[in-house]
C-alpha cells in the first residue's frame, strides 16, 4: 500500500511538471552564440533543447513564394510587394539565406519530436489570406508534416479557413479578444494569448480547459509570470528563453 501511495505521489509530481510545455518563440535565437530569429539555425537550436515545439512566421511574397519572416519588411523591402528573387539578395543578420517556408520545413522534418508551430501572418485581403492558407497546407502535406504541425494566427479568417480546409488540424487564435466560449463557438481548438490577457481575465484558463481547449501564452520571458501561469494550469508557454524555462 505504501508503495502504491508513493507511486501515486511520484506520478502526480511528474504530471504536474509535464503540465506546462515549452515552445520556442521564432526558434531558439537567444543562444550562445546568439543567432537570428526565424533562421534555420534558430530552429536547429530549438531541436537540440528537446522541448515541445518551435514557432515561426509565414508570409507570402508578391510572386507567391512562401517565406519565414516575422516583420512585414525584410530590410526596407515590403515582403508582400516584392518578388522573392529581390528579397533573397539580402541575407539574414547571421549570414543565412532569406528562408523559404520549404527550406524551413525541411529542417523541421529532421526532428519529428519537435512540433512545428506555424503562425500564418495576416494579409491585406481575405483572398490573399486564403491563398496563403492553401499554399501553406499544400506544402505541409507534400512534405508529410501534417502530424508534426500546429497553427496559430492573429487573423480569425485565417484560423477559420484552416479549419474549413482541414478540420482535424489544430488551430489557435492569437488576438486575445475572444473568450473561451467564443473560441469554442468559432470551431477553433484553443487560445494562444499574450500573458496580460490572462492577467485581466483570470478565469479564462480554467474555463478554456473545461471546454477542452488548448491554452498557450506569449511571449513569456519572466520566470515569475511563467510560474503564475503554470500554477493556473496553462498548457503551453511560448518564450524567448526556452532553455531557462524547460526545467522549471
Automatic annotation (TrEMBL):
Record-annotated GP-PDE domain positions: 20-248
SUPFAM superfamilies (UniProt xref): PLC-like phosphodiesterases
GO molecular function, one term: phosphoric diester hydrolase activity
InterPro entries: GP_PDE_dom, PLC-like_Pdiesterase_TIM-brl
GO BP: any one term: lipid metabolic process
Top-level lineage group: Bacteria
Pfam entry (one): GDPD
Protein name: Glycerophosphodiester phosphodiesterase
Record organism: Chryseobacterium daecheongense
Amino acid at each position: 500500500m505504501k508503495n502504491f501511495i508513493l507511486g501515486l505521489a511520484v506520478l502526480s509530481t511528474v504530471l504536474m511538471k509535464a503540465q506546462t510545455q515549452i515552445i520556442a518563440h521564432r526558434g531558439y535565437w537567444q543562444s550562445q552564440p546568439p543567432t537570428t530569429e526565424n533562421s534555420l539555425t534558430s530552429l536547429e537550436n530549438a531541436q537540440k533543447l528537446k522541448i515541445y515545439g518551435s514557432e515561426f512566421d509565414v508570409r507570402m511574397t508578391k510572386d507567391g513564394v512562401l517565406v519565414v519572416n516575422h516583420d512585414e519588411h525584410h530590410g526596407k523591402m515590403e515582403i508582400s510587394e516584392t518578388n522573392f528573387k529581390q528579397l533573397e539578395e539580402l541575407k539574414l543578420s547571421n549570414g543565412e539565406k532569406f528562408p523559404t517556408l520549404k527550406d524551413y520545413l525541411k529542417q523541421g522534418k529532421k526532428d519529428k519530436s519537435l512540433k512545428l508551430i506555424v503562425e500564418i501572418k495576416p494579409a491585406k485581403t481575405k483572398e490573399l489570406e486564403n491563398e496563403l492558407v492553401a499554399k501553406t497546407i499544400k506544402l505541409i502535406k507534400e512534405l508529410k508534416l501534417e502530424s508534426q504541425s500546429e497553427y496559430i494566427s492573429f487573423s480569425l479568417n485565417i484560423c477559420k479557413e484552416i479549419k474549413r480546409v482541414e478540420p482535424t488540424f489544430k488551430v489557435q487564435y492569437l488576438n486575445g479578444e475572444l473568450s473561451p466560449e467564443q473560441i469554442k463557438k468559432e470551431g477553433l481548438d484553443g487560445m494562444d494569448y499574450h500573458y496580460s490577457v490572462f492577467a485581466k481575465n483570470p478565469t479564462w484558463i480554467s474555463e478554456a480547459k473545461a471546454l477542452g481547449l488548448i491554452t498557450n501564452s506569449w511571449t513569456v520571458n519572466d520566470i515569475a509570470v511563467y510560474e503564475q501561469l503554470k500554477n493556473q494550469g496553462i498548457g503551453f508557454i511560448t518564450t524567448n528563453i526556452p532553455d531557462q524555462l524547460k526545467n522549471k
